Each structure stands twice: as C-alpha cells, then as structure tokens.
Amino acid sequence: MTTTTEAPPETRSFEADVAKLLHLMVHSVYSDKDVFLRELISNAADACEKLRYEALGDPALLGDDGPARITVTLDPDDRRLTIEDNGIGMSEAEMAEALGTIARSGTKAFMDKVAGARDAEGSQLIGQFGVGFYSAFMVADKVDVVSRRAGAESAAIWSSDGLGTYTIRPADLADAPPRGTRVLLHLKEEASSYTQSYTIESRIKAQSGHVPVPIFVKDMPDAEPRQIADGAALWTRPKAEISAEEYQDFYRGVAGQYDAPALTLHYRAEGLHEYNVLAFVPETKPFDLSDPDRAGRMKLYVRRVFITDDAQILPRYLRFVRGLVDSADLPLNVSREMIQESPVLAAIQKGVANRLLSELDKLAANDAAHYLELWDNFGAVLKEGLYEDYARRAQLLGLARFKTTASGGEWRSLGDYAAALKENQTAIYYATGTDLDRLATSPQLEGFRARGIEVLLLADQVDSFWVTSGVDYEGKPFKSVTQGLADLGLIPLPEGETPAAEASDAVNGFIAFVKTALGDAVSDVRASDRLTESAVCLVAPEHGMDRQLEKLLAGAGRIDAKAKPILEINPRHALIARLSEGGDDALREDAAHLLFDEARIADGDLPVDPRAFSARLTRVLDRGLG
After folding, report:
1. DSSP result, 580-607
2. 498 vs 578, residue with greater confidence
3. Which of 146, 305, 317, 512 has the fewest other C-beta atoms within 10 Å?
C-alpha cells in the first residue's frame, strides 16, 4: 500500500473561546455523559447512510470494503475508546470545515443557536458532526480523528485536547481506514468505565441499538469483533413479517418485564408528520405504576437514534404503556428539554394518545373479556384522565367500567347504565368509598335500591375527584347519594308498592329534639326519603363537598376542618317511632347522640367521643335490661 510521508501537523487556533464553549456543552446542553456515545454512533451511522446514497450514482465509491458497519474498540490498558465507521469519510478540507463549525461560529453565536433552537423549526444543532462531536470532550482529555473520503487516495488526522487549539495534517495511509472515519478518545480517568464491555454494550443497545447500520464491538484492540446490533429496527419492519415471539421478546426488553403484552400497537403515521409507533399494554401491573411522579415510560427515537425515555409521549394516565416512537421529523436537539417543547412532538403526542385510546375502544367492542382484564389492572389509572384530560373525557367515559348495585359484581359500562335509567331519572348516581363491600351495604343506598335505581360503586381514590369536575354522560350529571337531597320522590316505586306516609308530628318533634341535642355537631337534622331499613345516615350539604372527598383532603392536610354533616333520620323506622312517643328526656338525649355515632360508624368513622359513646351505650343497655 502506498503511504504518505508524514508532514508536520498544522496547529490552528480556535477562533472562539473553546474552553467556554465546552463548559457550555458539558454543563448546560447535555444532561448526562452517556450522550457522547449516542452522538458519535449517530454521526457514524449518518456517514454510512450518506455513502449509501452517493453510491447510487457512483458505485465505485463502495470499493472493496464490504457492507456498512460501525466498530467500537475497547482498550482498557491504555484507557482508549475508538468508534470507527466505513461510511463516506472526510477529506482534509471537509474535516477542517466539519470539526471547526462551532469554533468558527463563535461561542456567542453558538449560544444564540442553542437559545433559538426552542423555536427554530427543524433545528439540527445536534446531529451536525461539528456539534455532537464535541460531546466527546466530556469524557476525553484528547480526541484524534482519522478520516479518508470514499474514493480518495489521501487521508487526514485531526487532533485536539479541546483547550484552545487543534492540529490537522495528512495521515499515514497505513494507519487510516480504507474509507470512513475513526474517532479515538483518550479517556479521562473518571471515564475509564467506558472501556468495559458490559458498560459499552448496554449503553449502545439502549441508545443506538436500532440505528440502520450493524454495530460491532472489539473487547480489545486485537480481539475479533462481535456483533451487538444488526442494523434492523423491529418497528420499521412490516407487521406481517414479525412473529408474536419477536414482539414479545422486544416488549420484554423495552419494558423490563417478563410477562407477555396484552395489547400490541404497531403502525406508521404518514402525512404532515412521519413516525413509527410500537407500543405495548402489559399483561400485569408494572411495579412503578404507582410512582408518585406518574412518569411515562415511552422511549423517543429520532431516525432510529435513541433520544430520551422521559419525553412524556403519552398523558400520565397512560403511563402503564411501554414502547417507543421513532420520528423522522424531529431534530436531534441539543437538549431533551428543547425537544419537549417542539410543536412536532406535540403533534406526535396527540396522535399517539388518540390512536391508543381508539385501539382500546376496538378491543372493548370486539373482545370484552380481554378488555376487562386490562381494566382490572389499569382502570384506576385510566380514570385519572377523566379529571385531567377534558378533551378526551367523552372517550374515556366510554372506556370506563364500573361495579354497581345492579351488576352482581360484574363490570358495567355507562352505556349499560344509561340503558337502565328509570322514569324521571335525571342523574347518574354514585357512592364513593374505599371498600366495595361496605359501599354496597351503605344505608344511603336503601331508597335507591327500593326504586331499582342503579348506583355506581366507586372505590378508587381518583373517583372522588373526577366525579366533582363537572363531568356528565349523555347530558346526565353525576350525583352523589351521600350529598344533598336524594330527590327520589320523582322516580316511581316498582309496581304494587306505595309511597311511605309522611312523617308524623311526633316524629317531626323528635327530629327537632335531636337537632337541639346535637347542637353544632351537625349542620341539620331532617327526615330522610333515602332510608328504608336503617334508622339514620349522614350526608353532605347540597353544595358542600362529598364526604369521601372531604376525608381524603383532610387526611392529606389539604383542608383545615371538615364541614358539619347532615343527619338524616328514617321517620318510618320502628326505633324512631318509639323514641318519638316521648318519655325520659335523658334517655332520648342519649339516644340522639348514639344515633349520630351509629351513622358515623356506618360511614367508617369513629364515634365523636369514644368514652362518651361507651357511657351512653352502657346507660341505655342498663335501662333496657332493667
């Protein structure tokens, strides 16, 4: 092979303050040091793709160097890392141009570009060799770049420690690649882990495992290369060519779980924006489903280059979905924060969320049993969207499933509920709590059950929030059975049953007595039309806060004091009738407090004063036995 006589290196000064520029790169632009590997592999893949296109017009450019590849070589003894490609390569002039882009533009101009990238459509600051390349100095004290342009006889070497100058000179052809570029990083001591096989392989697979060029790793300079990525991204292949086993293997890798996907969504969006989506709904609950940050777990790629796993592709109530989006339109921006503000990403977020909810709609319609398994796992999370996502609320209401007083323990849709509405029923009734069994036996449900009115039993914490956010279904508002007047008089009783008689004067007198005895412990005491079996129950005022929501907010320290409840008394109950006959006022006062505490216990609360409750109960029992 012909070699080039080594010429003395030409030292050039950066026109900009490189130290300041590198400080910006390390501390302001990049959020983690691993990004350098992504950037250098992305540059190498771009070079291979450029050669592929140029070779369409000039096949001789390919020479005898074989198919495109990227080789990463580890040298732990000398603490060096090399990334080499056999792509288009660069001439000496192109190298000076490409690797001087930032410096020649000046630090201020570069900072202006960084600031402007938030609004600059199609900004390509990262992904340009002269920008992303400089991330190498986060981990390297010195960087050497040897490159030969495809079809050229000469090669050049560029070297810099990033402290103000760089050198460039012709390279010895014996040490240069036949074509393409070799980037040699002399690693800093604290970056020596990047010479470890496991570290490099895991980072490449996570960040760049699906670039369109096969990637090989050499564990030592003289070792045989081994392939760790085949250059074929699963999500770019036609669905008809992908087996269920391949989807499952990919899902397990991207989700970090060992179950099977319960739902797989794979499609390519075309039109104003082009992107591929491969998303999975897990079969079981992910361990981080209750993460207080409620962060999504969808990965973002740009042209098969990993960008971030915290781009929040989907709304937080779809955080159980695992997978990725690969965009052809997004820029490889200088920071994840800038990508997050991109209007292109906003369009992708909207499209992916809408498509996923549509797929859930289809599943609910075509395979109800399978959909209910998903709802069992993720229904409580999906219902967060009823509170947070007004634009999709109608669709989410259609997806929602509920246990009700008429469901026999099965799930019911709001469509099922609406089909069973009673004559003159103007609202969808619900009861909130923490336990379905206790909810099903709540005294507040008795009047609704007597009239055959179905009541939603809502036992998830989020239920107390979304039902109070002004939501309605087909024009019917949601109304709590524990709040305000029940308004059951408008709904007819089943055939053959007659309405109960109005409360007698004696009962009304006892109700007034109870109100006086309880004083400011309650806001009112009144006769109830919602009770048919129990003697008493507690409800919230008409325009007050639902009692379960009030408990949640009080427990979280969000409100200082609870509102005083309303005690409703069943005027038709035998005990109330006996107490209304008059008699010992001391006994009736004890009874008034015991009735109030009984209502609290039925609501899952403790008596107001446990010692006083015990003393009153003892007195009443003693009198009854005497």
Report:
1. TT---HHHHHHHHHHHHHHHHHHTT---
2. 578
3. 512
- pTM recorded for the entire structure: 0.76
What sign does the CA torsion over 303, 308, 313, 314 have? Answer: positive
Q: How far apart are CA 483 and CA 547, in angstroms?
A: 8
- Coil, strand or helix: which one is 89? coil
Tokens of 356: 């996923």
pLDDT of 496 over the 70 cut: no
Asked if pLDDT for residue 517 goes beyond 50, the answer is: yes
Query: Quick one: 274 and 216 in the same domain?
Result: no
Distance (Å, rounded) from C-alpha 181 to C-alpha 155? Answer: 10
Residue 117 — very low, low, confident or very high, per pLDDT cuts 50/70/90? very low
Separation of alpha carbons 228 and 209, rounded Å: 8
Give the residue-averaged pLDDT of 452-465.
94
Domain ranges, residue 474: 401-490
The CATH number of the domain where 28 resides is what? 3.30.565.10
Query: Are 440 and 457 a contacting pair, CB within 8 Å?
Result: yes
% residues pLDDT > 70 (the chain): 88
CA distance linking residue 530 with residue 354, whole number of Å: 41
pLDDT digits (tens, 9 = 90+) for 337-351: 667 678 899 999 999
From start to end of 173-286, where are the E strands? 180-187, 215-218, 226-229, 261-269, 275-282
Average pLDDT over residues 134-141: 87
Flag whether pLDDT at 119 surpasses 50. no
Distance spanning both ends of the chain, measured CA to CA:
119
Are 395 and 318 within 8 A, CB to CB?
Answer: no
Half-sphere exposure of 458 (CA within 13 A, CB side): 26
Residues 6+ apart with CB under 8 A from 165: 11, 12, 13, 14
d(CA 323, CA 216): 25
In a domain, 299, yes or no: yes
Q: Identify the burial level of 409 via C-beta atoms within 10 angstroms of its C-beta, where 0-12 means exposed, 13-18 middle and 19 or more buried.
A: exposed
